[in-house]
Hints:
The protein is of the alpha+beta class and 394 residues long.
Amino acid sequence: MKNAKMNTDTDLTENNSEQKSQFVEWKDNKLLYGLTPEMISGLEPIVKKRKYLSGAEIIQEGSIADEIFLIASGTIGIFKSNKDYKIAELAAGDSVGTIAAIGEQKARTAYAIALTDVDIYYFSIQDINTLPEKMRHSLLSKISINYANSIEKTLLRTNKEVADNLKKRNMLTTMLVIMMSIVFCLSFAASYISSVNAHTNTNYISALEIILLLSVSIYFIKHHHIPPRDFGLHSKSWRWAIKDSLLWTATVCLILLAIKFIIIKTIPTLHNEPLINIWRERGGSIRLTVILSILYMLLVPVQELIARGILQGTLKKILYGKHSAAGAIVIANIMFAFAHQSVGKYYTIMALIGGFFWGWLYNRQNSLIGVSISHIIIGLWVFVALNFQSLAIF
Length: 394
């Protein structure tokens, strides 16, 4: 999560209409129900407002607690396990950080992340300690009582969140196991057919594999009402995703051009090999090359949806720990490369190498738009423009 916090602290004693409306929101927070006018007057000088942008880290697990946060607007997620596991969602009227701030254990027990843009009122225990002793004790006692009264509802809501998350994880795990079974079974079938007759074309197995994987994915997405954006199917920040992809893709294409240049200059038998050597099917025309390139361009987004959006996206949700994203990239990419066995070892190796790059790019952008464009450009650059498969070393 990006720590994209916009700090707009405001003292509530400023005399204008905007501050008065903010004061009403603050006073109506469930944590402060039943406060006397004297208590409200005591808190007024120390309560401030802060705005957090979506994705910002509001509370870090393990940090020392001093502030209590009152949500005025927006939604906050409570996360454990290095922000990988959401245990609750809090909305306007809820509070965050109370138990650590007023309890004996001052370390925060979870992360609080802004799921939307959030307006928050907050005050610190240090500032409360500056209040007269009688008021301080009465105020902390009232906050503790209100917090205790809200615990039951909070626990019920948290239990529902945990149950929903477990149900979703079980469903995603089932989908993943089915998809892995399809990949391994059809890849084994392709290998067996090739071992029996090396001249048999097994490309139809790859087509069957894509159809089955896509069918399973669509079934689970529709049947379990999974939002398409969970698998990278959205247009949010699409301009940035395209620009970012083109920048990284251009860099990779230049590196690949340099690699081919080094190869043809290093190996004597390849000295006459042109740097740019448009691929053509044996005895085929450039027209056939164009047709196959167009078909490839249509196929790539489907591949990316399966490999990156569904396989990698699902694995990232299932795996725990700070390396869950890296683990998802590696496992999904091995499956992606394994699925290319039916078209030859060369394509399997190339899919493995390219897949790590596209997996990283998808994790960076969380969108299929940029990674699909990158896959198309690099694929056509390697197989059509540079024609790497024509080199004798392959």
